[in-house]
Amino acid sequence: MTIQKRGVISLNKAAHDLIGNAETVELLYERDRQVMAVRSTDDSSPHAYAVRNGSKRGPGQAIISATAFTQHYGIDTTATRRWKPFVEDGMLCVDFTQEGTVITGNRTKATAPAQDAKTSEAAVTAEDIDAVASQEEPTDDDTTDDS
């Protein structure tokens, strides 16, 4: 189970299977234990959250928009974190006393420090010079008319 920066909860297929591939869930939080639970419910529940399919290519990741829930209970969403959930009384649970694994996406490119950028720039320039120097001299391909 992953809680993303904005409070979106994502479940992989295996975790979603553990709650019967529910289309609607309730989110519960036990403050004393610092345990969050996800349980299957029907859409008539006043605190029901819809589960969306996170993949356009078929069943896979399940997404629950839970920003209000995470804000209400003060669940840390400053970084995307993943936990290995456990099942308790038919609910998928996460223990927040355990440190979640911080997930960093590959959507942003790391920037090189200024010194490294200069070094790599110099290396590229040297490579370019070597490449130009090693090229063959152009053949006598003068197309001007000498007449």
SSE blueprint and pairings:
Blueprint: E1 2-3, E2 8-11, H1 13-18, E3 24-30, E4 35-40, E5 48-53, E6 62-65, H2 67-72, E7 81-82, E8 86-88, E9 91-95, E10 101-102, H3 114-134
Antiparallel strand pairs: 1-2, 1-7, 2-6, 3-4, 3-5, 4-9, 5-6, 7-10, 8-9
What does this structure look like?
The chain is an alpha+beta fold and 147 residues long. The protein has three helices and ten strands; from the N terminus they run ββαββββαββββα. The protein is globular, with a radius of gyration of 28 Å. Strands 8-9-4-3-5-6-2-1-7-10 form a ten-stranded antiparallel beta sheet.
- What global shape is seen? globular
Mean pLDDT: 79
- The helix count comes to 3
| Residue runs with pLDDT of under 50 for 5 or more positions | 114-144
Major pleated sheet = 10 strands, antiparallel
Strand proportion: 25-35%
What is the first-to-last residue Cα distance? 81 Å
Helix content: 10-25%
What is the chains' assembly state?
A: single chain
Counted beta strands: 10
Enumerate the strands of the largest sheet in spatial order, edge to edge or round the barrel: 8-9-4-3-5-6-2-1-7-10
Query: Over the alpha carbons, how many angstroms does the gyration radius reach?
Result: 28 Å
The SSE order reads EEHEEEEHEEEEH
Structural class by helix and strand composition: alpha+beta
Keywords, separated by commas or semicolons:
147 residues, alpha+beta, 10-stranded antiparallel beta sheet
In short:
This protein is an alpha+beta fold. It is built from three helices and ten strands; from the N terminus they run ββαββββαββββα.
